[in-house]
User: Fold these one by one.
Assistant:
Number 1:
Amino acid sequence: GKQIEMRYVSTRGGCQPVSFEAAIGAGYAPDGGLYVPETLPRITAEDLDAWRTLDFTAVAVEVLLPFLDGEVSREELAELLSKSYEGYDAPETIPVTKLTNTTALVELFHGPTLCFKDLGLQVAVRLLALFARKRNEPRTLLVATTGDTGPAALRAVADVDDPSLRCVVCFPWGQISDLQRRQMTCASSEAIRVCCFEGGGDDMDAPIKRLSLDTTFKAQHGLIGVNSYNIVRPLAQQVHYVWLYLRCRELFSCTSLDVVVPTGAMGNLCAATFV
């Protein structure tokens, strides 16, 4: 097979580099760190010129392919991404609207759960399903949510409808909106389970990390954490930064721009660092 180009290393430096499949299948690295790309692909001015007329899915293929080259083919990735974005209610997927001569608004809420987390989780779940099918190894996705991540993860698993995947979501009782609670508790897929816990959202971080680092339990259940610490999420979420740059360059004839990001745990902002 083709030699794997990109490798992933732990932020704590205590592990050997691994493949993209291994990194997203692990969530946390064995030393408790987070997996990040060993190097970052360079986007050139020529690339940006060539991508100017591409639609969102085609831009996503160009941006993401170097991160998994050798493990997922261009054709597989293009088909996977097309399915990931087909549930959006805006033709351009991510509309960029000019407000003033110096300001534009980027709308990230046109996905199936009305939240920007769809951008990461539709792609993440489909990639995990692809690898699970190739290896014939069932996977259990584990999610802790304070509102947005849970519905997006459950919707992606239901949309993929793959027998190799199931999903368990935990949310803090009384601390999410009624809409978000109903999005999760009214989901109809047999592949998903939802449970609530007492406390704040951060109270689930420690037990999930313990489960993720328990190699025996993890192997027994094919456990994968898909919160923002899993590298597949910020990688998938970087695409809209390239997209908004291309659109703003058109709207304002600019070569640089400032992006204001309303964010909670910095997952959206973190994605921008890979571009």
Note: Strands lie at 8-10, 35-37, 96-98, 104-106, 139-144, 165-172, 192-197, 223-225.
Number 2:
Amino acid sequence: HSRNTMDSSLLLAKPSPSSSSRCAKISIAVNVALATIGFIAVASNGAPAQLAQPVRAANPTTFSAHSMAGMSQMGMSAMRRPQQQFNFAPMNRPARHSMKMQAVDAPVATEQSTTIEEFLANTEPKLQKAIMGMFSACKEIGYKIRTASCDKQACFNAFGDEQLAIDVLADNVIFENLRASGAVATASSEEEPTEVPMGGEGYSVAFDPLDGSSIIDTNFAVGTIFGIWPGSKLTGIKGTEQKAAGLGVYGPRTTITLAVDGIQGAHEFLLIDDYSAKHGQWVLSQSFMTIGEGKLFAPGNLRATKDNKGYEELFNYWYDNQYQLRYTGGMVPDVNQIMVKGKGVFVNAESKAAKAKLRLLYEVAPIGYVIEKAGGKSSDGEQSVLNIEVVGTEDRTQVAYGSAGEVDRFEQLVGKKFL
């Protein structure tokens, strides 16, 4: 029995390490380290870009024979990239950002989105050409604005062999595109308010090539306004006779909000600039059908409050009732936000000392057409701006755009009684 016990202890005893076994282990460890360094050097010099990224520090990891074999099968990329852990908020814990995302049905342009060409497929052919002339011009203007050089006086960019002020350049670009459409008989720009023959036939276009040009150097959003009338003249007409109108916005995104006779609502088109399959195309991003009540206001020409008691009272109403002030000094983005937010009012009132500056043909009537198609209301203090006849290209008027309730308040408090 004792002999058996002794034999068992001898079998279980740990053999004492020899010097040769210690050397072998050291040699193996050195070889593994050298091989790892070699792999990293090769990856950083000749491997694809995704493998040549800096190696991030990782928590200490214990490697077994099994894990080393697994890494060898996964390849060098897996060995150099430690696993990352992602922390997700529990579903039952309120997360502010995720709650906002769930509450907003944000417009998303995809490769299946409707293009402007598809949207206009059933529109009268010459009207299509006139509209597409404006879309082509706005695409070019948007690029010229993004790449313009500015000083404290103006912004400039190349137009052919010339360096032109950006508003003059925009004017030239629009005239060129309308002339090329072949569907425009007459065009007139706010820059030079005369009726210019275009050589085509079918429609006439009035436009403000770059509304807000004085704030481009600050990198605020600016825009283009246009209205399209049938025939060959731009006087003796009313806003109700427009066949289409639009607002181009050059901001973080380049968009055009378009309203077309016979198509319900106003519709925003986004210029795709992401090198996708639709790069360079205009795609439908959202549609506007209603403008509701809400405490958002954009007050223009506030100097008029000094001698227009009605405008002063209206401003105090907004202030006392804690309306949100959203005003940049660019008429296009200040009006466009009313459709995007679905609420609010834009007002540019006048007085005896602070006369109206906005021109009926180039700004007021086209925007009024878009706003009313979007479900809002417009007024000069007594009636819709679309009912005012354009007697001359330089006709000017005060105006309010927005929800029905806000425009009614403008008519009640301001109207024309202090002019």
Note: Confidence is low (pLDDT under 50) at residues 1-17, 39-104.
Number 3:
Amino acid sequence: KDFFVINAVARYVDKHFKSLEHLEVAVQANAWTNHLAAQLDFRIEAEHLELFCENFNNTDYVRIPEHIMSTQRVLVEEFVGGEPATPAFLGSLPAHTRDIIAGKGLNCYCKMLLHDNFVHGDLHPGNLLVDARDPHNPKVAMIDVGLCMKLSHREGELSNDLMSSFVRWDAKQCRDTLLAMGRHQKYCDQERFVAEVDDLFKRYRPISGNEEGVVENILQSMFEATRHARVTMDPGYVNLMFSVLVLEGFIMALNPEYNMVKHAAPWLVGEGHMSKTLVKNIFRSTFDHLCIKASQTRAQIFGGGSDEPYVPKRRPRFDVGSGTAVYHDEAEEAKRVVQAAERAEEDRQMAEAKAARKAAA
């Protein structure tokens, strides 16, 4: 009944408010209600659990709870330990642990998106758990897999093309891919969209080729450009792009200077996606991975205090206000980590005090 009312109101708005026609309210409401209806049957979530367990069977740093039994209204699954990936918790971890988690989180998402074509659609911090008891080998776990996206061959190709456009730094490929993600573009201001995307690619990576001024994470700005130009995107792609933004937020909470483009490059090796820039990014990513593994091995053999853990080179951030690169400051980083740990401790003390008051009452 609720879904019927929502869709009826959406159709009324679509019919009588022409100024909102470009939002396609009825189409979006229908997609949303269908997506939400899937969560009313726990047997569907059980199928998702089994598929994720199969997909990540050989990935030792990702935990997926095993399905025990399910009915339409009840789901029983394995308990998986870990801390929710909140900014406060992530900020309290050592720098090298955060870099390892960022790499594993990105690899996990790239595997879902570019290899399996089956993506967790609700990866907020509460559904992404981190087990950092071993700071040299942290693990991540995904739970609550009711909302998932099964990508068609076409959707997988376009997702691959979009990520490839950032690795190759190809503004035209990025524009064409985003425009292809809609059934039509009759409301799109394509001239404005072309200008804004070109401007973003020039601002974030100067044509001079000086990579010390590169900003790797332009996704938020790119999606703002699609909104300004009224680019139409099918609901499935909107959900997919939103999940990428959630991933970006997770990684930025771990390391604001993490090079997402460089570390995603190895997943894009394939026909039609090889380029000089891609090869260079693959080399850098592989080098960082080998150095981190060597650091972990030294720590396990000689003990954590025998050597400083390897931390990949920090990349500069782009300051929109000044239009220049802002370089990493280790002192500021240490201060940020301490502040995050203090906030986490304050939250813990407040939660304990609240529990004590509740028990006394």
Note: The two ends are 40 Å apart (CA to CA).
